[in-house]
Amino acid sequence: MNADPTGKYTFETFRFEGDDETPNNPRLPLVVYRGVVPDQAVDDAAGWLERTFARNGWSDGWRNGIYPFLHFHTGTHEVLGIARGRTTVEFGGAKGRPLTVAAGDVVVLPAGTGHKRLDASADLLVVGAYPRNGQFDQKRPGEVDSEVARRSVAAVPLPEKDPVLGPRGPVIDLWRAR
After folding, report:
1. pLDDT tens for each residue of 160-170
2. Residue pair 104/157 in contact by the 8 Å Cβ criterion
3. 152-156 — which CB contacts under 8 Å span 24+ positions?
4. Hey, how many other C-beta atoms are within 10 angstroms of the C-beta on 33?
5. Domains annotated on the chain, with CATH
6. Is the dihedral angle over the CA atoms 166, 176, 25, 60 positive or is it negative?
7. For 133, phi and psi rounded to 5 degrees?
8. Measured in whole angstroms, how far is the alpha carbon of residue 77 from the centre of its chain?
9. pLDDT at 100 over 90
10. d(CA 103, CA 84)
11. Whole-angstrom Cα distance, residue 83 to residue 143?
12. What pLDDT is attached to residue 161?
């Protein structure tokens, strides 16, 4: 566990190698924030996550779950805020690993990172969003040539702000260092 520059949250990072099915992102780590929703916002965690992401330039938000099939985005990064419940998600495809996230956690996926829900509580509610400077797409293995996918992922611009902390935070500090 690491602490963000403000010392307010803890986070973990994970790296995933690409394969012929899933490009993943060889440069940028997946970032998992733990327990970011403040106690006073727990009753409206989804609203708090939406407002926080939007304030930091992550838009086109949605509320739902996480698909139970492997998919990835070659034109944009993605943030997943767990508003309610818990879920285990396989991140990184065949060379990845399952991670369990729960209410209050936020996962920031760099473009190309494969993800697939393995298990979830019945009350799972996820808030997702994308940085304004990305181009949404959704691919499954076999729907795009692996070399085309790798080139597309490499061309995705870095987000302007961290979806949780804005101008500072692991997404800015770690990703810009790459």
Report:
1. 999 999 998 99
2. no
3. 152/23, 152/74, 152/75, 152/111, 152/112, 153/23, 153/24, 153/25, 153/74, 153/110, 153/111, 153/112, 154/27, 156/74, 156/75, 156/76, 156/77, 156/110, 156/111, 156/112
4. 27
5. 2-177 (2.60.120.10)
6. positive
7. -90, 15
8. 7
9. yes
10. 5
11. 31
12. 97
Is there a contact between 113 and 25 (Cβ–Cβ < 8 Å)? yes
CB atoms within 10 A of CB 166: 15
Which residue shows structure tokens 């985005």?
A: 73
Mean pLDDT of the chain: 95
Percent of the chain with pLDDT over 90: 89
Which one-letter DSSP state was computed for residue 44?
A: G
pLDDT digits (tens, 9 = 90+) for 72-86: 999 999 999 999 999
- Over residues 102-147, the pLDDT tens digits come to 999 999 999 999 999 999 999 999 999 999 999 999 999 999 999 9
Is residue 116 a contact partner of residue 69, using CB atoms and an 8 Å limit?
yes
Radius of gyration of the CA atoms of the chain, in A: 15
| Torsion, Cα of 109, 112, 118, 121 (10° steps) | 30
Residue type, 23: P
